Amino acid sequence: MSRRRVNSSGSLHPDDEVMPYSDDETDDELDASSEEEEPEAPPGAPQPPVEVKPSEMGWKVKANDRPYHHLPEFQKKVFLCFKKSRYSGNAIKTYKYNVLTFIPLNLYEQFKRVANLYFLALLILQIIPDISTLPWYTTLIPLVVVLGVTAIKDLVDDLARHKMDKEINNRKCEVLLDGRFQESKWRDIQVGDVVHLRKNDFIPADILLLSSSDPNSLCYVETAELDGETNLKFKMGLRVTDERLQHERQLAEFNALIECEEPNNRLDKFVGTMLWDRERYPLDLDNMLLRGCKIRNTEHCHGLVIFAGADTKIMKNSGKTRFKRTKIDELMNYMVYTIFVLLILVAAGLAIGHTFWYEEIGSKAWYLFDGKNHNSSYRGFLSFWGYIIVLNTMVPISLYVSVEVIRLGQSKFINWDLQMYYAEKDTPAKARTTTLNEQLGQIEYIFSDKTGTLTQNIMQFKKCTIAGRTYGDPTTAEGVTLDRGRPVDWSWNQQADKKFDFMDHSLVSCVRSKKDKDVSEFFKLLSLCHTVMVDNKDGELVYQAASPDEGALVTAARNFGYVFLSRTQDTITINEMDQESTYEMLALLDFNSDRKRMSIILKFPDGRIRLYCKGADTVIYERLSPDSRHKETTQAALDIFANATLRTLCLCYKDISAAEYDAWSRKHKEAQVSMSERDVALDRVYEQIESNLLLIGATAIEDKLQDGVPETIAKLAKADIKIWVLTGDKKETAENIGYSCSLLTDDMAIHYGEDVNEKLRIRQTHRRNEPQSLNRRRKRPTEPFFNMPGKNALVITGGWLNEILYEKKKKRRRLRLRRLGRRPPPAIPQDSQPMDDLEKELRQIDFVDMACECEAVICCRVTPKQKANVVSLVKKYKKAVTLSIGDGANDVNMIKTADIGVGLSGQEGMQAVMSSDYAFAQFRFLQRLLLVHGRWSYIRMCKFLRYFFFKNFAFTLVHFWYSFFSGYSSQIAYENWFITLYNLCYSSLPVLLVGLLDQDVNDKLSLKFPKLYLPGQKGALFNYRNFFISLFHGIFVSLIIFFIPYGAFLQTMGQDGEAPSDYQSLAVVTASTLIFTVNLQISLDTSYWTFVNCFAVLGSIAIYFGIVFDIHSAGIHVIFPSVFTFTGAASNALRQPYLWLTIILSVGISLLPVICIQFLHKTIWPSVGDKVHRNRKKYEMEMEEEERKTKPPTFDRGRRSRRSAYAFSHSRGYADLIASGRSIRRRPTPVGAPPGSIREAPQREAENI
Questions:
Q1: Residue 887, annotated ligand binder?
Q2: What band does 1206 get if pLDDT is binned at 50, 70 and 90?
Q3: For residues 515, 519, 520 and 521, what is the CA-based torsion angle, rounded to 10 degrees?
Q4: Which of these, 49, 54, 55, lies nearest to 25 by C-alpha position?
Q5: Is 450 annotated in some ligand binding site?
Q6: Between the CA of residue 552 and those of 485, 532, 620, what are the distances in Å?
Q7: What is the 3-state secondary structure (H, E, C) of 901-919?
Q8: Which residues, 6+ apart, have CB-to-CB distance to 181 below 8 Å?
Q9: What's the number of CA atoms in the CB half-sphere (13 Å) around residue 1015?
Q10: Distance separating alpha carbons of residues 769 and 216, to the nearest angstrom
């Protein structure tokens, strides 16, 4: 079945290959461009390139001149008249506190919590004698414990940040000071310093490359920290600095002035000039070494610091640190406000009751006279504040500290999970925050990077088709197909890469026989047509490719006996089956994103001239000769390769006569020296020679996914979690990976940018034509965008994203409005521009609604800022909980914007990890993080909060019922010390353990049944409904535990003839009933019993009785007579069997309705969790049986769609570098010298390149 493509016409077409920067331009650029932009360009018209004039560049750096950067003109105002240099130091700071600020700042932050501030106010009230109804220590002790525990946690977190900052800032680097290089710490480096870097050093700042040990100041860097790419990039110094700045003395005399753009977050752009000895030299990104990169395969280099510390591009891309809070946190705060309102209403009602009571009864009873001549209204006022103090436990002070303890424990469980430990890199999972665990159980949208996150960024040559015959499946040397084969033995080839796996022995036999000319031409093309660089280190040849794809192809050719040895500016030498041959390179037609192919024109040793070409099938087939053979069979093979989600590439050749080449060469040279539109002229000339090609075959490369990615995505989809891929890669590459990881399937209709824009334009036009009154009433249209049945997917590029969301000219429009004043909206609005901010917002809402209707969304060629904007849109308009996962610095903004940020660690640098909330090494661990730890954390926290509110209501509202019998006089129903210790000792441990250890089903069943995750997304386990259920449950229990003992005490005689119906005995019985009830209630709510839970419940009851008998003893009363006043109350009351029966009756009546409701709920209306829990034994046995019978899954190759991805993903090669001769060694190794072992550099560890 072929894949459906949805197209539309009549739309504007942004360039899908260009990565836009919507709002990231520097102000200099915009000012420069806006001055010339008075007439508004028509929508979609190509924008002229922006050139920054030297006079408009606001950043000036003087080499070897530190005082220059402290001149008054470079000062900026900090506070009042205090100024400091606009140039940042190189030290970075991520910590919040120091020794002096920790206590005041931490207390300030803690008292920003309303509950803490409330209890501080209560403490002040309790010091006032006329108001105080409870001793001050009943509030002070819990408050000090809460503040202390939180402060210790904050201190530990900040010490870790201090340690990390110190480690980075104290790294060593050689800086040119006083005419010689001296070792200095990173934090002491300043703008304008000249630094000396060695191989494998991290780059400490954004540095202008001056010279290096390589020819022409070439320098290779690894950019994994920036973009997750593991293949090396090359940088070049200016020719003038390369020639004149090689020695220490020359560098010390260097005094150039650099004028460049202001610090910004654009990783792909740098514009500046260097003024030196009255000459100006242009600077661009190729001359810059960015902080976060690593020097590779270059012995040493020198550079000039342009941007330091916070001004560097990697720090500018980090985005603002956002304070993240969970949905439960927000809900919990609103519930505390609700309790506070209830408290005020109840206290006000009781105060009014006391006013009337005193007027009618209290003032007339002589025995109640307290010696104070207060009137009833004033007494009511004092009673109000008294009840605020008495009922203060309705607002639970220990709630926040208990939540922090639970979150800390859950974070430790994530850290200790061995199933999320990646042994290959010795990388455990790490919860870098302790405040977001339960939010992991509520994720609705995941935004993922591609390179290094879904993929390993490792390319493998898997299959090929040559002259109509396909190779790559397990086959014997005789051509017999096998179900399971063994890898080829490369021992016959001394120069082979032993790590290269290939299963088809017939192709090896064919190559070694030298009988098939097509096979020979195929591998000869792979060994000659490329831009791979080769280096000779101690007799060992090492390859360096511009992309992993090209490295994989050259390595494949090497293993099959066609070994690329060396190249010069105009020759290329290979070893063809142990015979060395040198070819003259007449022209190199490099790859670019428009051509989607590359060619090389070679002169053979026998004088023949031949063009070799490789590229995307879509462009190669257009240029094939009518006489070319095997087109249909190759196309069928391409379909099969595409079905297996392999990256395909077509190979072809053409013989050229000397006369034809001479004529074309003249045109080529004219195009090379063209002053205007040189690239267009070159492309036109390339088209002329790249025609009438003869097809040889095609290659198929696997862009290796990380282990378990398709299974993880499928499992998360079953949990109703939508996954969006946001990547800087090209459209076809991203789409191909979408199929590879099962995000896209063939039964989906793929919608591209033009189709999306058209649908949104129609919706916008329809809205404009509607009456305004109707528009106001219905802002959110209800009709779906896709009315056809079936699944839909969205593949959209950054250019289209800007077009759709009206982001294209935002800054330019803002600057123009600032200059000209606000203009009224046009009378006839254009479709491509919004009439006002409301229309722009409605357009964004439409886009989010459309995207959320799709099963999958892939945004490609997007910038770091656009990634963050997409996340923000979904958060803003869907009110959904979002998670972002990435591995490079270009993902940091997205990670910080999402509710949860996950960084992948272990191979592509630590920038994303340092900004993340959770970190681990493999994408597949995400399913365990969400479906196990996240779901458990959410269930535990919800159960904890429901129970916590219940036990506090049940405890506090006894005072309310008692007030009806005490003249509303703020008299407490319990002993003072019971109130102090209730939440700290008597009822805290069982519920804490439920919050830490409880689980409805085990981890294996949690993964087997992803539907168990759905209640968390809906917030079904903790909301205002649950809150009011807890409130009414607490009211019911407080009624029972007060009125049953009260009724039992009426007109009662004890066993010894004494009446136990005194106030102190009632307080003891009520408190004992409460302790039994709340501890047995948590037992009913516990799903997962351990010895620790059992011990906690029994231990809490035992602790209660132990403390009660101690503080009611005569001994402690003698020592502190005014503090411990309930002398002998417990021993007197609890020796009466009648009162024990009262306690048992009260506890039974309190728990019986709960038991009945739980029974009915689980039998008549069971949830998915209840069903799984009921049948867990059966499911566990089935899973054990499946594990024993599990076989490797077979890949479905039934699709009939063709996708080519290799050429689209290929970055621009090294052709310019090769043609310039700047990469060629000054003393090249003789071609005839016998090479040592030849190997390709590992993608992650290019130590010996």
A1: yes
A2: low
A3: 130
A4: 49
A5: yes
A6: 22, 11, 21
A7: EEEECCCCCCHHHHCCCEE
A8: 174, 175, 196, 248
A9: 19
A10: 64
Give the pLDDT confidence of 663-678 residue by residue, as tens digits.
988 888 888 766 567 6
pLDDT tens readout for residues 311-350: 888 887 765 556 678 888 888 888 888 888 999 999 999 9
Is residue 201 within 8 A of residue 302, CB to CB? The reply is no
| CA distances in angstroms from 825 to 42, 419, 1067, 1185, listed in the order given | 16, 59, 74, 69
Structure tokens at 59: 């950043």
Q: In what order do the strands lie in the sheet with 455-466?
A: 469-471, 455-466, 694-705, 647-656, 609-615, 597-603, 579-589, 571-576, 562-567
Give the pair of three-digit tokens for residue 831.
């479709």
Task: Please tell me the distance from the alpha carbon of residue 862 to that of residue 1216, in angstroms, as a whole number.
Answer: 27
Question: How far, rounded to the nearest angstrom, does the alpha carbon of residue 623 sit from its chain's CA centroid?
Answer: 43
Cβ pair 990, 1079 in contact under 8 A: yes
Which residues are CB-contacts of 1144 (< 8 A; sequence separation ≥ 6)? Answer: none
Helix, coil or strand: residue 950: helix
Say if residue 861 carries a ligand binding annotation.
yes
Contacts of 802 (CB under 8 A, 6+ apart): 14, 20, 22, 808, 866
Write the CA distances from 965 to 381, 898, 1042, integer angstroms.
19, 54, 11
Q: How far apart are CA 883 and CA 574, in angstroms?
A: 49
Q: Is 358 helix (H, G, I), strand (E, B) or coil?
A: helix
* Residue 555, annotated as binding a ligand: no
**For residue 401, with 0-12 CB atoms within 10 Å meaning exposed, 13-18 middle and 19 or more buried, which class applies?**
buried
Residue 504's alpha-carbon distances to 486, 513, 768, 1122, in angstroms, are: 9, 15, 63, 93
Measure the CA–CA gap between 917 and 548, rounded to whole angstroms: 31
- Residue 264, annotated as binding a ligand: no
Question: Could you report the per-residue pLDDT of 185-202, keeping only the tens digit for each?
Answer: 998 999 989 999 998 889
| 1078: nearest Cα among 1041, 1115, 1112 | 1041
DSSP 986: I
The CATH number assigned to the domain with range 172-318 reads: 2.70.150.10
Please give the helix or strand (H or E) that residue 314 lies within, else none. Answer: helix 313-316
CATH number of 429-452+707-766+789-805+841-922: 3.40.50.1000
Residue 1218, both tokens: 């090769």
**Whether pLDDT at 25 is above 50:** no
Strand partners, 571: 584
The count of residues in the chain is 1249
Q: How far is CA 973 from CA 190, 205, 1065, 1070, 1108, in A?
A: 69, 67, 11, 8, 15
β-pair partners for 613: 599, 652
Residue 38 burial (CB count, 10 A): 9
Tell me if 550 is assigned to a ligand binding site. Answer: yes
C-alpha span between 792 and 1210 (Å, rounded) = 28
Q: Which of 228-232, 636-640, 829-833 has the lowest mean pLDDT?
A: 829-833
Is 729 annotated to bind a ligand? Reply is yes
Please list the helix, strand and coil fractions of the chain in percent, rounded to the nearest 5, in that order.
50, 15, 35
How does DSSP classify residue 268?
Answer: T
Nearest-CA neighbor of 151 among 186, 194, 101? 101
Residue that is written with structure tokens 């990256």 in the block: 647
CATH 3.40.1110.10 corresponds to the domain 460-704: yes
219-229: burial string, b at 16+ Cβ within 10 Å, e else: bbbbbbbbbbb
Residues 6+ apart with CB under 8 A from 645: 736, 737, 739, 740, 1203
pTM: 0.77
Q: Give catalytic residues, as residue numbers.
A: 449
